[in-house]
Design a protein that fits this description.
The protein has 340 residues and is an alpha/beta fold. Helix content is 30%, strand content 22%. The chain starts with 17 loop residues before the first strand and ends in a 6-residue tail after the last helix. Bound molecules: adenosine-5'-triphosphate (ATP) and nickel (II) ion.
Amino acid sequence: MRHEDPTSHSSAPSPPLLEIRGLDLDFGTPRGRVHALRNISLNVPAAQVVGIVGESGSGKSTLAYTVMGLLPQNAVVTAGNILFEGRDLLEMPSQTRRNLLGNRLSMIFQDPMTALNPVRTIEGQMIDIQHHEKISRSEKRSLAIQMLHRVGIPDPQSRMGGYPHHFSGGMRQRICIAMALLVKPALLIADEPTTALDATLEVQIIHLLKDLQKEIGCSVLFVSHHLGAVAELCDRVAVMYAGEVVEQGGVRDIFHNPAHPYTRALLECDPGRIRQKTRTLPTIRGEVPNLLGSKEGCIFQPRCPQAFGRCTQDTPIEYRIGVEQAARCHLLNEKGLVSR
Ligand SMILES: Nc1ncnc2c1ncn2[C@@H]1O[C@H](COP(=O)(O)OP(=O)(O)OP(=O)(O)O)[C@@H](O)[C@H]1O
Ligand code: NI
């Protein structure tokens, strides 16, 4: 008898794990509404790592926190959908959404102390995080030990009785990664997880994340302003500027064939490329615009070296460059590319 590959006759590609469509978000402030996210559309395919890059204030963390449902009180989503495993996170009851956290969705932060409770042992916290699992306490304990071992905590059995302050910053971040992945999430969201670490530790943590992501088969949304880390870790990249995704595509296309003048400027300023001994991004000329009030034309136009007449009047739509790459720039229309 011939056994057919069950996947062979499914002609439609599987839907992305996370699909963000037309997302707009404002923060209410005493000075007016800050338009922090504007018409964001972005997919995270299953088992892929998607990087989000952009200067400080471009909205990277806001986007990550919106997906997690961890926004401050003054945030208002004014348009869009966030489909996760086919269900809209913005429409579901808050209890259902909370149940996804630390289960299908988990997060690691820049400062590990954000996630760790300073007055509880690592063991207690790692057992608690598995509260969705129907297994005994001793099984949870041994899974925690295995995971701590996997992330490189030496002698985890005897050290897991310790408190967070007994560990170095790098070790604490490893513990956070262990906790976030212990629940075998479908999606891990990482907001600048290596920014507080020195360069050697950063490389180690990036490799660790990559290995674990492959083992677990989860997707990762990786927020960073460190382009080298993104190039190393990610399959796809979204470039954010002033609340918009101005360009997105496969990691090679974005780094080798950037289409948006902002992406090019960001790459030209990258300390990794200019081989300076600095890890802070040298600034692109001009300033990030303030996000109060409505804007006419392209958001990058005031700083763009290639701006022309149209850029001050119309907001550019997203033009397709290749199968996967797309950018919001009127120059692409001039080149005869079509919108997606
Ligand atoms: N609670 C808030 N209230 C008002 N404005 C906010 C709030 N949080 C963020 N913002 C504004 O939203 C914009 C996006 O901020 P966000 O922190 O998402 O940027 P980011 O790209 O993560 O920057 P960084 O690289 O510095 O972390 C900024 O203009 C910021 O000042
Ligand atoms: Ni941020």
